[in-house]
Amino acid sequence: MDITWTQFLIICPLVFLAGFVDAVAGGGGLISLPAYFMGGLPVHYVLGTNKMSSCMGTALTTWKFARRGWIQWRPAAGGVACALAGSSIGAHIALYIDPAYFKLIILVVLPLTAAYVMTKKSIETDKPPYGVRRTAAIAMGCAFLMGLYDGFYGPGTGTFLLLLLTGAAHMKLTAANGMAKAINLSTNAAALTVFLLNDAVLVTLGLIAGGFNIAGNYLGANYFARRGAGGVKHIILAVLVLFFAKTIYEMMGQ
Question: Which of 35, 183, 189, 203 has its CA at 20 to 30 Å from residue 26's CA atom?
């Protein structure tokens, strides 16, 4: 498939923005996926090429967070395994349940999630941390749950995972974001492998857009390092509003 310069000009800047948002608070796919659709690509190329550019950007952020010591490798490894298992189960469930029913649930969950975020002075948890084993167990449960969601539906997985890891597992924001990135990188890489094996990736576009996504992730990771919890709350709210609008738009178009 031939790609025009117009498509590059539409897709690449939005993929850059998606990388920035994803590094800070997750949910970059809510921007990058529509960007590829706006470029006029067929659905299977949208999904595959988006995974390539997303993987490239997430790999950079994961590396930067790891260098800062923000990834606790033991619970992260367990979280990755649980997320992959949940994703596989969620994908199989999706074969039997109409996603339209799930979107109705999302329309209730999103306002409640936004209300939860707005009532907190900061996304950073103010609750005392759990012990290592309890934290790891809850984090793995959250990862499985979000993997299940990601396999079944997907949008906003990183944002929801960040909120669960800070709220339920009492993880520090930096550690929660580090684990979320490690999980996202693993699940995205697994999906990308499938798309590559089935020739569903526009490699040239994916690599160039991936460069923009890396740049966005680089700036987003630096922003998160400087601002921390102070800059995350408003970005998460913006992601939730975007997700809510996207869900309503999809339902109206059916």
Answer: 203
Asked whether the beta carbons of 205 and 3 are under 8 A apart, the reply is yes
Residue among 135, 179, 130 at smallest CA distance from 158: 179
CA distance 6 to 22: 25
Q: Do 122 and 172 form a contact (C-beta atoms < 8 A)?
A: no
Spatial CA neighbour of 106 closest among 4, 253, 240: 240
Q: At what angle do helices 157-167 and 132-152 cross, to 10 degrees?
A: 160
End-to-end CA, the chain = 28
Residue 162 structural domain: 5-252
Domain count, the chain: 1
Task: Give the 3-state secondary structure of 70-110.
Answer: CCCHHHHHHHHHHHHHHHHHHHHHHCCCCHHHHHHHHHHHH
In the block, tokens 């039997």 appear at 96
